[in-house]
Every structure is written in C-alpha cells, then in structure tokens.
Amino acid sequence: MVNQPNKGERKRKSGINAGNYDQQLEELVRLLNGLKDTNAELVKEKEKFKSERTALEQEIESLKSKITAPELTVWEQKIEKLKSEETALERRIDGVKYKITRVERGLKKFMVTSLSSPLFLFYGYE
Questions:
Q1: Exposure of 58 by Cβ count < 10 A (0-12 exposed, 13-18 middle, 19+ buried)?
Q2: Residue/partner pairs of 54-62 with CB below 8 Å, 24 or more apart
Q3: What is the pLDDT of residues 39-73, one digit of tens each?
Q4: Where are the coiled-coil regions (predicted)?
C-alpha cells in the first residue's frame, strides 16, 4: 500500500513554499501597515478640506450683504471645487479601506495555513 499524504500536506506542497512563510508574512504585514498609514493621511487631508470648505461657507454668509453677484459666484465655485475634492478623497479613502480589508483577510488565511510559523506566535490570530 502506498503512503498517501493527507490533504493539508498536499495543499501545502502545491501552495506556498514552506520556506517562504515568514518572508511572505512579513510582506503582508508591511503592506497592511502601509495601507493603514495611507488611510490615516487621506483622512487628515479630508478633514483639512472639510474645515476649509466650512470656513469659506461661514465667510460667505457673513459677507453676503457686502458681496456683489460676480464675487459671490467666484466664492461659490471655490466651495464647489472643495466639495468635489472632498468627495474624491472620500472615494480614495474607501478604496484604501477596501484594500486594507482584503489584505487583512489574506493575512488571516495565510496565517491559518502557516500555523507552524514562528511569526504566528508573535502576531497572533484574531
């Protein structure tokens, strides 16, 4: 009778090389941390745009009686531009959050398949 490997061994041999678990795990963690940093920067940038837009809106309200129609149009265009930039930033933030979620899922799956990895003990599993 031929000795057949169990399914886990077969999967490991056909999947990720056993020697590269730690290296690939470190790459996934680095990617995840980079995405989280990018997300934090985008959120800060969005808040900056939001505060600029709010300040412009307040300034317009206080100056409405003193501003002529053409000047008012220019201010309203500036506000619309800031709103569109804010919307674009929100889309980028959503994209980065999606990537973070995908990397976290991949990291969890990777760690489940590499329970023998010493880094598994360091990073843990949620």
A1: exposed
A2: 56/82
A3: 888 888 888 888 888 888 888 888 877 777 787 78
A4: 18-99
Separation CA 2–CA 87 (nearest Å): 63
| This prediction's pTM | 0.51
User: In this structure, which amino acid lies at residue 44?
Assistant: K
- Residues 117, 106: Cα–Cα separation, whole Å: 16
Tokens for 8, please give them.
């886990």
Which range is least confidently modeled, 43-52, 59-68, 101-110, 116-125? 116-125
In contact, 24 and 121? CB cutoff 8 Å: no
HSE-CB for 50 with a 13 A CA cutoff: 9
Query: Residue 122 pLDDT more than 80?
Result: no
Q: Where are the alpha helices (DSSP H) in the chain?
A: 7-14, 21-63, 69-113, 118-123
Distances (CA, A) of 53 to 5, 47, 99, 104, 124: 64, 10, 28, 34, 43
